[in-house]
Amino acid sequence: SIRRQQFAFANRGKMDKGGIMSSTLSLVSAAIGGGILSLPWVFAVSGWAVGVFLLALGAFAGIWSNNLIADVAIKNNLKNFDQVAHAGGGKCLQNLLAVVIMFYLPGCVITYMILFNSLAHYIANHFGLDPEFTKTMLFRTMVGVPATICFYFPLSMMREMGALAFGGVASIFSLVYVGIIMTIEAPAYYH
Fold this sequence. Notes:
Helix content is 79%, strand content 0%. By secondary structure, the chain is mostly helical.
């Protein structure tokens, strides 16, 4: 509809802190990484037919839920997800959103820490470090502590979701990097 197009166009402008555009970019950058990385595993475990069905079901659910959120935001002229949750389900849904975010964000950080340490282990082995050393707690500490101080801790100190809006660009570069590594390394697994 024209109202939905106006809503979409209006939110492409300035990225307000906690606004729809910045929150959407933050959520997309958080969701795409794990979703893209888990797709090969889903297809390997479930097979092509079930995998395609699950992919289509996930796409349908994503489109449907995003349309519901957009409809609530448009009808009530809301600017962020906290307001949308309150309008859609009252204080109870607003509190549930806060609890989900409270558990989701540390889970994402832990996942990224594990992936980063695995990547460091892989790179260190390819540059000739002793594979036994790269499995030790000392190596994990030497990689994890600087990463926490330089990346994870500063990111956790941001008070607004809008501060992470441009993390989507880093996510895209990371996904391209993972795609390149997978393309280079995949043939070795089929020998």
